[in-house]
Amino acid sequence: MPTRPDPILTVAQMRAAEQALIDAGASVESLMAMAGRGAADYAWRIAGRRPVTVLCGPGNNGGDGYVLAESLRQRGGAVSLIAPYEPATAAARAARAAYGGDVFPGSARPKGDVLVDCLFGSGLSRPLAPEIFALMADLAASHAYRIAVDMPSGIDSDGATPLNLGLPSFDCTLALGAWKFAHWLMPVAQMMGERRLVPIGVAPVPGAAHLVAKPELAPPPIDAHKYTRGLAVVVAGEMPGASLLSCQAATHGGAGYVKLLSSTPPTLRPPELVIDDAPLDQALADKRIGAVLVGPGMGRSPAMRERLQAVLRRDGPLALDADALALLLPEMLQTRSIPAVATPHEGELGALLAAYGIAETAKLPAARALARKSGMVIVAKGPDTIIAAPDGRVAIAHPAPSWLSVAGTGDVLAGLLVSRLATGAEPFIAACEAVWLHGEAARRAGPVFHAGELVTHIAAAYAVCL
Known about the structure:
- The chain has helices at residues 11-23, 28-47, 60-74, 90-98, 130-142, 226-229, 240-251, 280-284, 302-312, 323-327, 346-355, 363-374, 409-422, 427-445, 451-455, 458-463, and strands at residues 7-9, 52-56, 79-82, 103-104, 114-118, 145-149, 155-156, 161-162, 172-176, 179-180, 194-198, 209-211, 231-235, 257-261, 274-276, 289-294, 318-320, 341-342, 377-380, 386-388, 394-396.
- The chain starts with 6 loop residues before the first strand and ends with a helix.
- It is elongated, with a radius of gyration of 25 Å.
- 37% of the residues lie in helices and 17% in strands.
């Protein structure tokens, strides 16, 4: 993984990061100028000569708006600035004093093509007042294109929830300094439109969450062979199709050897796939195994629970998916020394939370709590995929194409995961790599694909990481 992935900061972490810049010699005014002009660069490219309406609030987010408006005005842009509040900070007052255009009150409804929301940034914790909500709604409805600076107004940044019902969506959101959780987590992530980051020099924050970044992979060394590249094993269950999909994905995920453990070999199978029909305990005793996947197509019968227990007796890199998560009991993991990686969708996540006695329902804190209590790396799948490790590390994936919402794509992700584990990647890193490759393969597959077609695009996704 890259050593400097994009951080995702809480409001408190962002304030501390800005204070660190000030302690190092920056001023609030200089940071405001950097943020406002950086946001203006994007707004200018989007708007060009079209008329722009900038909506400024009382705090420093409003100050960013004054800087942005003045930057557009100096470039020859047509700007109308609405300020329903007087500036409440020294930096915002200075930015307003430096603005050379007219300032309209909150009752104004100027005509424009592009709306720039600089009312409230990421620190908002209360709903918008009724008159301000009405102002936002009116302006959003009358402008064809909408830009939010830092955060659309009316959103709880840390909780990623709307503070008012019926908030307008935006075509572009310009995060200032660092990403915030609401930029990437549902339900509000869908309101952001295109997301761009305006840097202001924020230093890395120890322990911060981060976006899943493109992996840094490498070709096999010149003396590599199939076992040094990793033996990935998929344990078959009662329905062979899912495990075959996982095997096909695993062959493209970097492992040198993929084997299916099945007492009843499937009739149709890829010629390159090795089938081992030995008793499960015997097959799992192979010391060359790099990682094991169990769950796809498994079924939930008592016999399958015994099969899962046999897998869990082997203390090595392990991926748990699908039915394995439904059969899993907390006590089954107590003797493991290496964190397993679990890949629950929303329903499976809820069942695991109940099994571990975790009452949290919001996805991010739930995934964190489950990782901590279970000792597993949790890949909480969905339109916002969260990866949480027992040691507190958290990563959030860029949104993958919604075309992934088709049967079998989870089996593909599980196959990629066991392949990355088999190569020797640490569980949290392996999970991030698999999620990235899965999303990139979907982007390359285009619209309306099935899971088998998704597999054919993994190699191209892998190639861009070399």
